[in-house]
Amino acid sequence: MSDGMEQVRSLADQKYKYGFVTDIEADVAPKGLNEDIIRFISAKKGEPEWLLEWRLKAYKLWLSEAEPSWAKLRHPAIDYQDAYYYSAPKKKTDGPKSLDEVDPKLLETYEKLGVPLHERAALAGVAVDAVFDSVSVATTYKGKLEELGIIFTSMSDAVKKHPELVRKYLGSVVPYSDNYFATLNSAVFTDGSFVYVPPGVRCPMELSTYFRMNAEKTGQFERTLIIADKGSYVSYLEGCTAPMRDENQLHAAVVELVALDEAEIKYSTVQNWYPGDEQGRGGIYNFVTKRGACRGRASRISWTQVETGSAITWKYPSCILQGDDSQGEFYSVAITNNFQQADTGTKMIHIGRNTRSRIISKGISAGHADNTYRGLVRVLPKAEGARNHTQCDSLLIGDRCGAHTTPYIESRNSSARIEHEATTSKISEEQLFYARQRGLSEEEAVSLIVNGFCRDVLQHLPMEFAVEAQKLVAISLEGSVG
Amino acid sequence: MTAASHPDWLESLRRAARAKADAAGLPSRRDEAWKYTDVAGLGVASFALAEKPQGGPPEAVPLGDAIRLVLVNGSLVASPDTPLPAGVVVDRLDSGFSADLVQAHLGRTIPPDAKSLATLNSALFADGVVLRIGAGVTVARPIEVLSLGQAGEEPLAFHPRCLVVVEEGGSATLIERHQGSGTYFSNSVLEIALASGAALRHYKLQDEAAQAVHVATLGVSLAAGAHYDGVLVQTGARLARHEVHAALDGLEASFALDGAYLGAGQQHLDTTTFVTHVGPGGASRQVFKGVLDDQARGVFQGTVLVQRGAQKTDAHQLSKALLLSPQAEMDGKPELEIYADDVKCGHGCTIGDIDETALFYLRARGIDEATARHLLIEAFLAEVLERIEAEPVRQAFAAVVGERLQGAHATRRIDDHRQG
Amino acid sequence: MLEIRNLHASVDGREILKGIDLTVPAGEVHAVMGPNGSGKSTLSYVLAGRDGYQVTAGSVTYKGQDLLAMKTEERARQGVFLAFQYPVEIPGVTGVNFLKTAVNAVRRSRGESELDAMQFLKLARKKAKELGVSEEMLRRAVNTGFSGGEKKRYEALQMALLEPSFMILDETDSGLDIDALKVVAEAVDAFRNPQRAMLVITHYQRILDYIVPDKVHVLAGGRIVQTGGKDLALELERTGYAQFVGQAA
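The joint structure predicted for all components is written out below.
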C-alpha cells in the first residue's frame, strides 16, 4: 500500500510477550499414550475407581476413531505418542495448603503473566485458579467464596471432596463419546477448574482460571465444569499463554456448563496461546470442546471469546437451550495473523419454547492467515416462538489471507424466527486517511478501527479484561499492515 | 433427424462419464453438498431409462413468439420452424456440423465431481441440443426449450442435455420449462458459455408432475463483461434440486439469479448455488424466496467463492423463507469463502412466518386473515417475478404461481375453519 | 505560512493540478473558488497528504518546512487541519475515544502532557457545548448516522480541540442549510487570529459572507487563473465560471 503502511510493517514485530520458559523441576509421566499412562494419571490424583473406568472407556473409544477433517484447517498429522500427558511442578509437600507453600518461581511466573496470585494483589475482586501444565497450583479467595457456599477449586480437588457433584455432572453436557478431541480429553484430562454456585447465590466476584503451558512437548488437557444451581449467577474468565517453542503443542480442553432454573453463567475467554512465529513455525494446536446446557427454565448462558493466539484454533462454544425461555449468547472476536488458522463459531440448539439466541462474530484475518466462522442454529419442532439473530462480520487486511463463513441454519418450527447476516469488508483507505489527518499514526488508526469493528463483542467482556483485550487486538495485528 | 450413432469423441466422453458415475454411485446425505437432500432415497436408481418416444410432437402452446424446441423424455421431438433469425444456430450435440463448437464447450462449465448427477447425465443423455448465438447478434424473439416428462405405469429416467454458446457481444433470451405426467426422474444439464460482452436472460419454470424427481445442473461461464440474468421458479415435483455452478472468469462480469419456490404437501425443493469470482471487478447478486406449506421442506445452499486476485468483487446473496405450517421445514447454508481483501461481500438468510405487524395492518383495514396472508405471500414472491423482462413469460410464470397459491390458500381456509 | 510553488499533481496517472502558485501568509484567509472538476478537492488532498495523489513537480513549504516530505499524520500534528467535504463514517469507534487519541497524539508531538480521560472529557464537553454538538453525539461512533449539518459541526469541534495553525475547509458549505452554515462558519471565523491562516475551498461564495477572505483565487483547469480581493467572489457569483473554463483548456 502506502509508504506509511511499509513503515508499520517494519515496526519492531513485537515478540510474543509471554514466550518465556520457567525453569522449574517437574514431575513427568513417561512419553506416549497407553492404558498405563492413564492409570498413572488417575493414581497420581488418587481418583476413585469409577473415574478410572470412565477414562479407560474413553481411551478405548478414542483408539477406534479418526481425527475429524471437516474444518477448514491444514496441519501435519499429530503424533500422539510423541508427547507427555502429565507434567506437574514438583512439590515439597503433597500440595500447597496456602500460597506461602507455592514455589516462589511459580508465583513469579504468574506475576510476569500479569496474574498475581497473592490475594492482596492488584487484581482485587477476581478469584484465580492457576493451572500450570497439568495441575492446578493455587486457588485464591477460597475462604471468602466458601462462606457463600460457592465451591471454586481444582477438578482434582473436587473429585476428592465433592465426588457426588462431579459424578452427577461430569460428561453430562459433553459425553466422553462426543468427538475425537473430547474423547481424548476424557481419557487423559489432568486438571482444570470446578465451580458450583448454590441456589440463589450471586457470586460477588469474577472467577478466573489462568492456564499456562510450560514444559516442553506437553499436551494440556484440562477439564472445567461449572454448575449454576437454581437462581444463581456466576461470571467466569479464562486466560491462556504458553512459551515460544518451534514444535507444536496440543491443547485439547473440555468445558461443561450447566445452568439450572433461572441461573446465569457468563463465560469469557481471552485465548492467547503462542501463535507460532512469522513463518508459521511452532504454536499451539487448540482443539477445544465447550458446551453449555441451559437445563432450567429461563436459564442463561453467555460465551464471550477473544481468540488471538494458537497456530490452530478449533472451537465451537455452544448452548443447548433445553429449558423454556432460556437464552444462549455467543460473542466472538477471532484474529489470525501470519500463518494462523482459526475455524471457530458456535452451535445454538433450540429445544424449549421461547428460547432465544444471539450470535455476534467478528473475524479479522491478516498476513497469510485463514479465518472461518462455522456455526449451527437448529430449531427443533417443539421450540415454539424461538428466536435467533446472527451477525457475522469479517475483515481482511492484505490480499494473501482468507475469511470464510459457513453457517448451517435449520428450522423445524414455523413460529420460530431466524435471521442471519454476514458481511466481508476491509479497512477503507478513506477511514485510515481521516484518522491520520487528525494526527493518528497508521498503526494507531488500524488498531482503533479494528477495535471499533470488534466493539459489539468486546463490550461483553468483564470490565477488568476489556482493556486488556483491546491491547491484545492491537498487538496481534502488529506487522500486519502492508 | 435420424438417430445416428454418436461421433467417437463424444462416445469416449460418455464412456468415461459412465465409468465414473458407476463407480461413484448416487450422492447420499453423507456428501456435504447433499446433506439436506436425499435423492437416492426415492428409488430413482431403479427407474428404467426412457426410450425414444413414438409418434409426433405433443400439442403445447408456445410462449408468445418464442422459437421453440420440444424434448419428450429427454429426446428432441420438435425443432424450431426455419428459417431461424440470422446468427442463430440450433443443432444436435452429435451433429458433425457443430462438432468444433461442442467439443470446445461441452462439460467445461461444471466441475467434474465424480458423484455429481451431471456426470450421470453425460453418460446417459439421449439427444443433446446446442444453441449458438453468433458474435454481435441480438435475438429479439425468446428461444424456448420445453422439456416434457411422459411416464405411464412404469417410472422412467431421462437426462435432458443442452449447451448454449453466446459469442462475443451476442444477446438472447432463453426460456426453459419443465412439465409432465406420471412418475419420472428428470436429470437435466444446461451449460451456458458466455463470451466477452455476451448477455443472456434465462427464465426457468420447474413445474414437473407431482410424483416427478427433478434434478437440474446449470453451469455458466462468463468471460469479460458478460452478463447472465436469470429467474428461476420452482413449483412442481415431489423432489427437486436446482444446482448452479457459475464462474465469473473475466473482468467485470456480472451474474444475477433470482428464485422463487412454492412447496406444499410432501414437496422437497432444493436450490444450491456455487458462484466463483475469478476475474476482478465482478458482480453477483442472488435473491431466493420460498414459501413452504404443509410438510414441505425447503433447502438453500449458496457458496460464494472469491478467489485471490478477484479484487473489487461485489457479491450479495439473500435467502428468505416463509414457513406457513407447523410441519414445514427449512434448512439453509449460505457460505462465503473470501481470498481477496478489497471486496464487498455479504449474505443474509431469514426463516420465519409472515410478518405479524403487516398481517395486523391489513386486517385492521378490514381484510380477512386468509386474504391478507395471500396478499402478503403474493407480494413476497412478486419481487422475483418482476425481474422477468419478457411480458408473456412473466404472465405465464405468474399464472402458475398464482394457481399454486390459490391451492395453498384454499387449504389454509379449510384448516382455519376446522380450528374455528 | 504556506507557500505553494508550481505544484503539479496527478491521480491515477491523470494530471489534475497543472502548476499552482499560491502564498498564504499567517493571519490571512484565502478563498479558492472554481467550477466542478477544476482541482479544488485535489488541492486539499495533496496538502493533507492523501495516498494516491501524486505530486509530480513543485513544492509546498509550510512554516519553512517541506510539507510534502511529511506523512499525513505528521502534517496533522504540525497543525495542518483538513475539514472534509464528506467526513467518513467509522462504525464502532466512539467519538470520545477517537478525539482523545487524536488530541493526545497532537499534544505529544508538541511536547505537551497527554490529557487523562477526565481532563479530556471536561475539555470536549466544553467545546462541544460551544458548537452545539450534543453529549449524545460524542458518545456515538464517529460520523456514523450523522446528518450533513452534524458532520460539519463535528469537523468544527475537532478543529477546536486540535487547535491547528493552518486550516483547509473543503466545500464546508455543501450539504448545509443556511442556518447550519451560519453556525459552522461563525465558529470557524472565531478561530481567526494573527498566528493562523486558512484556505477556504468553495464553489459558492455564500460561506464567504461569514468568513470574509483577504484574497480570492480562481482555480480552473488545475491552475490559478485570477486573484483578487473579496469582491472577486461576488463578481463570480454574478458572472459564473464559464469565462474561465475555456481559458484554462
